[in-house]
């Protein structure tokens, strides 16, 4: 089986990263260069139909694409800590630079301390600017200028546009991903893509209850690559798989056909179920349809294993700002407003630090499996971002790192 990966990054990195990826049997690469990292979301959107997974040359273009909500395929980025940072440190030392007095962007102080600590290097005068989504390249340039005036000898940057500015003003070094870091990221995205392929083959069954026959429904389900059959006098069975349903709902967030059907029917209630077997999918679809009927006359609900229900779209009265918006989120993800408020407090306390399900469980005083279920629901609704895994320190499963965005 061959998988095509889109490699996204600046001109001077994409070819090297792509060449390392092509060492892996069964991997082909679509090279997607940009002149400035802000172009990454447009590249992803333009080529999304042609690749099965994405690999970004760094966290900055990955974050920009994620925030633009254009990543509908498995995606990963090359981490610039560990081997990449150590390789850069060795080169700086070889060129005679004082690595104990540098400014460095994108990576965290903890990552720098860990790498320098292993190499026996001091970090007291190393200044770091961890990457945050709201930072612009101008902000990063300003950071390095301040540190240079304060005594930093070399500006170390992960961002091509920042390097192009700084190299004319001060000693500057551009971090480039090591082959080891690329291979690590590639393994991650291939595992994710394989898991996604297995999930996409899951059976998806929908039960659609309409007030006035099947008018318009046959045309809509055809766009899903689905088949339609009568299930009951006013209910129709939709048969498809997870992949087409995922794409048609923009990652399980909305169902455009619901609005169009509402123009022809007073009542449109649809329940989708995803299961490993037809029987499981049907049971989940029944549960989803039952919930859709409780929510309102024009509603679609997706039910997953693990008691996860997601309201895809509803024509409930428009909410008032602030707390009413939170009520809509609660409706969609099946969590209470007080729980979402507590999760917001957890997010605020954590700042830019990723959270594990164990930490969420401790903050909310719930069991860890309950916290995992909450985070999974938020991730499916686009309100939490999975960042990777953290070894748990025991023989159990590794802890997944999340960033909350609700």
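^ Assign residues to that structure.
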């Amino acid at each position: 089986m061959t998988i095509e990966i889109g490699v996204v990054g600046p001109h001077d990195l994409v070819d090297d990263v792509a060449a390392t990826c092509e060492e892996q049997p069964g991997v082909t690469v679509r090279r997607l260069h940009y002149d400035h990292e802000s172009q990454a979301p447009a590249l992803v959107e333009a080529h999304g139909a042609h690749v099965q997974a994405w690999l970004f040359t760094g966290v900055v273009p990955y974050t920009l694409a994620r925030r633009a909500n254009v990543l509908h395929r498995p995606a990963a980025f090359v981490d610039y800590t560990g081997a990449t940072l150590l390789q850069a440190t060795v080169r700086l030392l070889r060129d005679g630079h004082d690595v104990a007095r540098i400014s460095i962007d994108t990576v965290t102080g903890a990552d720098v301390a860990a790498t320098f600590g292993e190499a026996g290097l001091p970090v007291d005068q190393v200044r770091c600017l961890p990457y945050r989504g709201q930072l612009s390249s101008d902000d990063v340039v300003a950071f390095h200028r301040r540190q240079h005036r304060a005594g930093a000898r070399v500006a170390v940057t992960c961002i091509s546009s920042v390097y192009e500015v700084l190299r004319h003003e001060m000693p500057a070094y551009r971090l480039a991903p090591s082959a080891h870091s690329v291979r690590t990221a590639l393994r991650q995205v291939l595992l994710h893509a394989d898991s996604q392929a297995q999930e996409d083959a899951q059976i998806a069954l929908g039960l659609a209850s309409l007030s006035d026959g099947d008018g318009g429904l046959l045309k809509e389900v055809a766009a899903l690559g689905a088949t339609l059959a009568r299930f009951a006098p006013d209910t129709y069975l939709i048969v498809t798989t997870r992949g087409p349903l995922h794409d048609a709902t923009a990652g399980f967030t909305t169902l455009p056909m619901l609005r169009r059907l509402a123009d022809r029917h007073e009542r449109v209630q649809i329940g989708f179920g995803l299961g490993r077997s037809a029987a499981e999918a049907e049971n989940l679809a029944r549960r989803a349809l039952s919930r859709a009927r409780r929510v309102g006359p024009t509603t679609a609900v997706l039910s997953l294993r693990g008691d996860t229900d997601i309201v895809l779209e509803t024509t409930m009265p428009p909410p008032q700002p602030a707390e009413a918006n939170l009520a809509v989120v609660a409706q969609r993800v099946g969590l209470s407003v007080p729980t979402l408020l507590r999760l917001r407090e957890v997010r605020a306390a954590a700042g830019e630090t990723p959270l594990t399900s164990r930490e969420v469980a401790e903050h909310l005083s719930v069991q860890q499996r309950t916290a995992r279920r909450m985070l999974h629901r938020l991730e499916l609704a686009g309100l939490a971002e999975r960042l990777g895994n953290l070894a748990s320190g025991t023989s159990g499963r590794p802890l997944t790192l999340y960033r909350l965005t609700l």
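The chain has 16 helices and 17 strands.
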